[in-house]
Amino acid sequence: MIETARAALEEVGGKVTCAVLFASEDYGPMMGDFLELVQLHAHAPVLVGCSGAGLIGTGREAERASGFSLLLLNLPNTSVRAVPLPVLREESEVTAASMRELAGPGGEHGLGHLRRERHPCP
After folding, report:
1. Computed over its alpha carbons, how large is the radius of gyration of the chain?
2. Which residues, 6 or more positions from 85, have their beta carbon under 8 angstroms from its beta carbon?
3. 16 φ, ψ to 5°?
4. Which of its termini does the chain have fewer beta carbons within 10 Å around, N or C?
């Protein structure tokens, strides 16, 4: 994982706005330490993602696979914040309104969207 995080950091030029991580459920027992290592070695101030029975990667997904997928984003002039959401069961009804409510303050700006802030040049 450390090599992957360092390689991804180099690929984005050493500047990271946020990291997106998908990990298989077998990482569960060590997830706390794993997330800490990702943040440390990827220099990720904001880390979002989830775990599940499969993996989501660039252009593909793998059901019932073991491993992780890491994407680092360098988004200049962009404000990003993580919003913790509760675990939802398959039978839960998920709507845009219910997700905004779960997101709390700031959720009205839209989940899954990054807000770009323009800063005037001196």
Report:
1. 16
2. 99, 102, 103
3. -125, 130
4. C
Query: Any idea what DSSP says for residue 64?
Result: T
Do 43 and 7 touch, CB atoms closer than 8 A? Answer: no
Crossing angle between the packed helical segments 31-42 and 2-11, to the nearest 10 degrees: 30
Residue 71 Cα distances to 3, 27, 51, angstroms: 14, 17, 14
| pLDDT tens, residue by residue, 69-80 | 899 999 988 888
* CA-to-CA dists, residue 11 to 76, 87, 115, angstroms: 15, 32, 23
- Separation in Å, CA 74 to CA 16, 77, 102: 5, 10, 27
pTM: 0.69
